[in-house]
Amino acid sequence: MKAKLVALAVLAACGTAYAQSHVSVYGRLDLGVGSEKDKITNQSKSVVSSGLLTTSRLGFRGTEDLGGGLKAIFQIETALAPDEPVETKLGDRTAIVGLTGGFGTLKLGRTDTTFDDIRDLAVSSSLWDSEFTPTKNVYGVGVGDYSSRANNQIRYESPSFSGFTFGASFSLDENAAQKRDINAFNIRYRAGALDVGLGYQEQKHESAPASDREYTALSGAYNFGVARVSAGYQRAKDGNSAKDNEYSLGVNVPVDKFDFSFGYANSKAENAAGATIGKASGFALGATYSLSKRTRLYAGWRDTSRKNAAGVKTFDERLYAAGIRHDF
For the chain, which domains are there? Predict the structure, then answer.
C-alpha cells in the first residue's frame, strides 16, 4: 500500500513538472528548382536550391513557468541545406536562454539584433522577405549590408505600452585586440493594421575605424485587407564617410489560397564629397499557394543590377524558381 502511495506521489510530481514546463521541436524544409543567369556574361545555370522562400531549419524551444508571471525560455535553431547537406554548427541561427515576464524579455546568446526586426518589417510584404526580395542584391552598394545576427549578445525586448515597444541589443566581441562590437536599438508602434518602427545599429571596429558602419532604418507596414503593403528607408554610413541611401517597397495581394507579391528596391552610394560612386535597383514578382496550413507552393522572379560611378553595369542577375516549403 505504501509503495502504491509513493508511486502515485511520484507520478503527481512528474505531472506537475510537466505542466509547468514545455519543450517543442519544430522545423522547416524549403526546396526549389530554377535558373540563375548572369546577364553581363550571358551565362546561366540550373539549380536546386534550399531556402528560397525561407531558410530551411531545425529548432528546439521551450519555457518553464517559474511562478509570479516569470518564465525561463530557451531556443536553439540550426540552418539546414537539404539540397546539398553540409556540416553546420548547432545553433548557428539562434542559441539563447533568458527570462520573460511583466518586465519584458531578456535573452543571452546568439540571435537577431533588434535592428534586424525593423529591417525585416520593411520587406515583410516584398516577396515575403525571401531570397526573391530585391534588397538582397540591391542594398549595400557602397557601405555593405548590415549583420543581422550576432554572437555574445544581450538582448532586451520591452512589454507594450499602449502599442509602443522598444528593444536594445549589445554584442560583445570578446577580443581586446579588435573590439568589433555590434549595438542596436529600436522603437516600434503597432495598432491594428498599422506597424511602424525606427531602428539603429552600429558595428564598431576600434582597431580599424575605417571599417566602422552605422545603419538607420525607418520601416512601416499596413494591412488593408485586400492588400498588405510594406516600405522602408535606410541610410548606411562607414568610417570613411561613404553613404548609402536606400529604399524598398512591397505589396502582397491575397486571393483565396494564393498570395501574389511585388517588390522593388533602389540604392545610391556617395563618397565623403557627395559624388555618386554606385547605384543599384531591382524588382521581383512572385506567388505562393497554400496546400495546407503547413505546406506551401511558391514561384518567384527577381531581376537586380548594379552600376559603378561611370554608369557601367558591374552586376546584372536574374533568378527565377519554383518550389515547395513544409513546416513541421
Answer: 24-327 (2.40.160.10)
The reported pTM is: 0.90
Strand partners, 270: 243, 276
- Please tell me the distance from the alpha carbon of residue 200 to that of residue 116, in angstroms, as a whole number: 9
The Cα 53–Cα 322 span in angstroms is: 10
* Phi, psi angles (nearest 5°) of residue 69: 85, 0
With beta carbons less than 8 A apart as the criterion, state whether 263 and 126 touch. yes
The DSSP secondary structure of 180-210, one letter per residue, reads: --EEEEEEEEEETTEEEEEEEEEE--TT-GG
Name which of 230, 270, 271, 260 is nearest 247 in CA terms.
230
Give residue-wise pLDDT tens across range 133-160.
999 999 999 999 999 999 999 999 999 9
Q: Is 261 exposed, middle or buried (0-12, 13-18, 19+ CB in 10 A)?
A: buried
Using a 10 angstrom Cβ sphere, with 0-12 exposed, 13-18 middle and 19 or more buried, the burial of residue 200 is middle
* The pairing of beta strand 164-171 with beta strand 57-67: unpaired
Q: Angle CA(258)–CA(261)–CA(264) in degrees, nearest 5?
A: 175
Task: Please say whether the beta carbons of 141 and 243 come within 8 A.
Answer: no
Note the pLDDT tens digit of each residue in 184-211. Answer: 999 999 999 999 999 999 998 877 888 8
Q: Residue 88's pLDDT is what?
A: 84
